[in-house]
Amino acid sequence: QALLARIRQHNPQLNCFITVTEEQALEQARAADAAIARGAAGALTGVPIAQKDIFCTKGVKTSCGSKMLDNFIAPYDATVVERFNQAGAVMLGKLNMDEFAMGSSNETSYYGPVKNPWDTETVPGGSSGGSAASVAARLVPGATGTDTGGSIRQPASFCGITGLKPTYGLVSRWGMIAFASSLDQGGPMARTAEDCALMLQVMAGFDDKDSTSVDRPVPDYSASLNDSLEGLRIGLPKEFFDEGLDSDIARLIDDAVAEYRRLGANVKEISLPNMKLSVPAYYVVAPAECSSNLARYDGVRFGYRCKEPKDLHDLYTRSRGEGFGAEVKRRILIGTYVLSAGYYDAYYLKAQKVRRLISEDFKRAFREVDVIIGPTSPSVAFRFGEKSADPIAMYLSDIYTIAVNLAGLPGMSVPVGFSKGLPVGMQIIGDYFSEARLLNVAHRYQ
Ligand code: GLN
């Protein structure tokens, strides 16, 4: 009730929630009280959380930030949602996001932008901006996010919270609306690594409904948070600390690295030579997959349908034309172009080869080091409108995060201080399934 009151007070200004599920939340809270009274509490019994509006929630609107799904009430729960329910968590509502998770500032949401609670003239980051801002504003202690190219880490960084993008395949994508299926991964966003560990514990693990889900035991993420960092090998990629990086951000990361040295870590410079190709490769692969995934929104089975269509073709074209926003259309057009017969080899196939080279860069690096540290984003939160007219400038705000998705690796953003009054995030990248290690490294600095 205290958080619902806080949401009522602050959400009109911050715009974090698309839907507040007040009645359902109180019902779940009463059930949690009863479970505790019976001595039957689960891992998160009574813990309030909120879901990014990309996760299907049975009986509750699931919009994905789009007019296309403004009328969509999901008929089932996503696996992630089901697992939170089973653990006893109380869902307060559904969080605002860039349309279909395409964006870095929340400005593409059909429901209007989320405001960054640290300075409401600046963006919260995206696409999980509602998740990051709601945790930062203390409207909820933990929220889910999804990360296709940086959408958990960059908003976590802009809002001064902790976010973890797991290894591809660790968290089920079933019921998580698809943007780019080979890159999408859900993960926790919370104040600290400790809280992220509790959430990931619930979210992670094999799901036979997702064919890319990996069947392997899930470690106890909380158990190793305080492990020693003596002998930890940290790599600093020189490509992450070039002229493009703000000097305040570089200094804050240096401070964190100095602390890791005091804790016994060994630090060395490494190189990820193909890093500069990650944004161009991503903006071929992600739109290609998006153009295919979004073909299902045809105005026929569910979602938005135009008024009085003349014929079937008119129904398709006007439903999609009216239901999708400009950024989504841009991605669909790029995607169908790079997949078309005449351009497939030159763009799509080439991008897949570049993707392999990027993975190999990381593979080489992880033979020498245990974790890679660098910035999450080249700048702190920018102002509304600053990049929205220039897609390329917007795309570049994910320059340090995108390679991690192309390789399928886990990555985290951890708050390390402030520059010009706005939060700065540090990124920690690990080898496949090293989430426990990342949480440990993050926790020791928090
Ligand atoms: N900003 C990137 C994009 O617009 C990444 C988004 C994401 O991770 N969902 O595609």
Descriptive terms for the model:
446 residues; alpha/beta; Amidase signature (AS) enzymes; 2 domains; eleven-stranded mixed β-sheet; 38% helix; binds glutamine
What does this structure look like?
- With 446 residues, this protein is an alpha/beta fold.
- It folds into two domains: 1-274 and 354-446, Amidase signature (AS) domain (Amidase signature (AS) enzymes, Alpha-Beta Complex); 280-345, no CATH class.
- 38% of the residues lie in helices and 14% in strands.
- It has 14 helices and eleven strands.
- The chain has helices at residues 2-14, 22-37, 79-86, 129-136, 153-159, 193-203, 247-262, 278-293, 312-323, 326-339, 344-368, 391-395, 402-407, 435-445, and strands at residues 17-20, 48-52, 90-95, 142-146, 162-165, 186-190, 233-237, 266-270, 371-375, 411-419, 422-430.
- The chain has an eleven-stranded mixed sheet with strand order 1-3-2-4-6-5-10-11-9-7-8, with helices on both faces.
- Strand 2, helix 3 and strand 3 form a beta-alpha-beta unit.
- Helix 6 runs antiparallel to helix 14 and helix 8 (278-293) packs across helix 10.
- The longest helix has 25 residues, at 344-368.
- The mean pLDDT is 97.
- The chain binds glutamine.
- Glutamine is lined by residues 101-104, 127, 147-151, 179, 286, 398.
